[in-house]
Amino acid sequence: MRRWGSVLARHDCIFMVKDSSYMFVTGPDVVKTVTNEVVTQEELGGAVTHSTKTSVADVAYDNDIEALLAARDFIDFMPLSNREEVPERPTADPWDRLEESLDTLVPANANQPYDMHEVIRKMLDEGDFFEIQPGHAGNIICGFGRMEGSTVGVVANQPMVLAGCLDINASKKAARFVRYCDAFDIPIVTLVDVPGFLPGTDQEHNGIIKHGAKLLFAYAEATVPKITIITRKAYGGAYDVMASKHLRGDLNYAWPTAEIAVMGAKGAVEIIFRGKTEEEIAERTAEYEARFANPFIAAQKGFVDEVIMPHSTRRRVALGLRKLRNKQLENPWKKHDNIPL
User: Fold this and answer.
1) What percent of the chain clears pLDDT 90, i.e. is strictly above it?
2) Angle at alpha carbon of residue 170, lines to 169 and 176, rounded to 5°
């Protein structure tokens, strides 16, 4: 956790200590000589820089003791190797515990955010959740928890940040995490509330199509059990890449508040009925919402296995993981995959 001259080429998880550990390819003196930039070690390659901007490090801690304790917690979630079983720990948390508060978590106003951490912690054993890269790409949450004592990976959109949109950083962060879970045979639970990919020239010119495809590739390739719960918005291509049925999702559930569509009602109506008056647009939007802003059309088409009540989320996930415990799936043989890097 002290100074490293170069970024680690191969790692599972990197913890750093603020004002103590540094990583950079070339140090501040070389940078000043070559580019005439004046920068400190902390600014160039410190713990905060790498855990927020570059994503080279997963978490930054205030001191060595915190980092070592966190490393111990992290290892406790992991199997000894990719050939070992996922570890199980004793738990007194009932598998069929109901959480009535989740029934009122999603606001009536579709534009109002809520904290997805609440869903995650109320779903997992004892509310214990070890988040990976919490300071980077906050619009998506990745981390480890346990269900009935066994380790699971959790990927979740975060409506509190950028409305939960997928951008380049979020796509890369989640893709890396999904592939990590698949490498160690850790089941993945995905919580979806995504209005789409983040629009804009900055995202397009920096290759959001390619980077978004990394997440799609990771989910499609993963052979571990995959359970998905759509809590609210699931629009367009962003819905597809978030462990949808089309990407071999094993069990896909939706809350009654879920909206599964190509886009939001207002945007769809403005395209379909272009040129209409504001009153007609408002009327058509209300009609569109009544017909399509619910999960039942998707359930009829088989894109969702079942519409479940939010309070029963933990119970349904636990039952699903039991059903998928002996899942065996192999991808067609190839020398190696060709993920869009």
Assistant:
1) 81
2) 90
CB atoms within 10 A of CB 235: 20
Q: In this structure, what token pair is assigned to residue 142?
A: 């990745």
pLDDT average, residue stretch 176-181: 97
| CB contact at 8 A, 321 and 86 | no
- Reply yes or no on whether the pLDDT at 155 is more than 80: yes
- Count of other CB atoms within 10 angstroms of residue 51: 23
124 CB-side CA count, 13 A: 26
| Distance set, CA 53 to CA 1, 164, 178, 316 (Å) | 19, 19, 21, 37
Place of tokens 């499609």: 220
Report the Cα–Cα distance between both ends of the chain, in Å, rounded. Answer: 28
Q: What crossing angle do the helices spanning 168-183 and 208-221 adopt, rounded to 10°?
A: 20
Contact between residue 196 and residue 165 where contact means Cβ atoms under 8 Å apart = yes
Q: What is the DSSP string of 241-300?
A: HTT-GGGT-SEEEE-TT-EEESS-HHHHHHHHTTT--HHHHHHHHHHHHHHHSSSHHHHH
**What pLDDT was estimated at residue 217?**
96
Closest Cα partner for 215 from 111, 66, 339, 312?
339
Q: How far is CA 216 from CA 173, 195, 222, in A?
A: 12, 16, 10
User: Regarding the domain delimited by 81-258+294-323, which CATH topology (the fold level of the hierarchy) does it fall under?
Assistant: 2-enoyl-CoA Hydratase; Chain A, domain 1 (3.90.226)
Q: What is the mean pLDDT of residues 110-139?
A: 97
Between vectors from CA 169 to CA 10 and to CA 181, what angle results, nearest 5°? 50
- The residue with tokens 């029934």 is 103
Which H/E stretch holds residue 213? helix 208-221
Q: For 196-200, what is the mean pLDDT?
A: 95
pLDDT interval class at 10 (50, 70, 90):
low
Q: Are 171 and 203 in contact (CB under 8 A)?
A: no
The residue ranges of every structural domain in the chain are 3-73, 81-258+294-323
